[in-house]
Amino acid sequence: MTMNQANSNMTYTGGAFYNRAEGIRAFGKITVSPNELLFEGGEFRTALPLQGLAVKAGGAGDRMIFFSHSGIPDCTIFTSDHAVLNDGNLRLYADMIRQTALIRKNKKNARIFIIAVMVLLTGMIYGIFKLKEPVCDGIAKQIPASWEEKFGDMVLSRLKSGKQTVDDPEIKNMLEQFTSPFLSRIPEKRYQLKLHIVKDPEINAFALPGGHIVFHTGLILNAKSPEELLGVLAHETAHVALQHGLRSLIASSGIFILAQAFFGDTSGLLAVIADKGLFLLTQKYSRDYEREADDKGWEYLVHANINPYGMIAFFNTLAESQEKGILKHIEGSLNILSTHPATEERIDYLQEKWKKLNRTSGYSVFPNDFRKFQDKIKNLG
Q: CA 307 → CA 97, 182, 298, 302, 366, distances in Å?
């Protein structure tokens, strides 16, 4: 059997355009004989001579194959079946071989281009994610402290509208007595730290941009010493100084707005941040942010001559509470103990820092009225 005979019965699904001015289109079947390309569909039947036949790819992604002939200008036959290019009858003509080879070459080049673009985009996306944190940090540093303070004030006012804050002057004065030895020794002066107490039994504490740090009464009542309370304060102060809340919001703003802010236009970014303010109250920081806050908070405590073991002791207090069933969901109760990383891992990490410190005494001593402070909190009703 010859190649001509092998292909004499091959049919391909396709269509034909007639009289482009009127836009007539028909659909049917295509066959290739040794002399012509034949289309048959409904009342339409057209044959284009293979001698002088022109073939090209077109449509989206060169998905379609179009056949035309200068001698029959009012008709174009088309198909999406690329197998027609391998038809043995077409390959009897050198010009057809050349044209189909060119189509295949262009298809191959297109595939290579698409793969190259995909590799490039993948590399760009990887690069953006690798550089995202330094970019967010740089953008956060461009935002004036005064704007951060106003933003923090706005978020705090929303919080106060749904929570009962503790405004008892004696309680606030006692809190200041315990915390002033720490706050007065913070080396960074970008923010004026402002402490707040919210009536809530959850063991929780969180920081807002601009210097607001909020304690739940449940956290104060579960602390066993001023050093434990100051361990939490040091951690949250580090979140403020390192702009973790702001950087988290910036990171969630989208690549386009990030790019704008990177080149100096922060208007879109500030609008997004203002809209997402309440997100700060429920977010859980990343593993890296929590580790940074542990490290920076530890440095603050040592610098202020406050026993940093209080941070470890408070972690242990919470772990004990969880074992007793007092805390069923630590990760939902305390941002400082979110699951990034796990509590046990962080305790082990801080224990190593304690061993390397080579100093277990000589730290500031606090008044013995911490229990009185807690009793005041407990009797709020």
A: 85, 11, 9, 7, 11
pTM more than 0.70: no
DSSP labels, 40-105: EETTEEEEEESTTEEEEEESGGG-EEEEEETTSTTEEEEES-GGGGG-TTGGGSHHHHHHHHHHHH
Q: Which fold has domain 3-109?
A: PH-domain like (2.30.29)
Output Rg (C-alpha) for the chain, integer angstroms: 36
Phi, psi of 135 (to 5 degrees): -65, -45
Question: Cα(294)–Cα(108) distance, rounded to whole angstroms?
Answer: 55
The 10s digit of each residue's pLDDT in 251-264 is 776 555 555 555 55
- For 50, 229, 254, 377, the CA distances from 222, given in Å and listed in that order, are 91, 9, 39, 11
Residues 30 and 49: beta-carbon distance below 8 Å: no
Residue-range domain boundaries for the chain: 3-109, 143-378
Task: Give the single-character DSSP code of 198.
Answer: E
∠ Cα 141 142 146 (to 5°) = 90
Please state, in angstroms and rounded to a whole number, the distance separating the CA atoms of residues 231 and 307: 9
* Strand partners of residue 13: 29
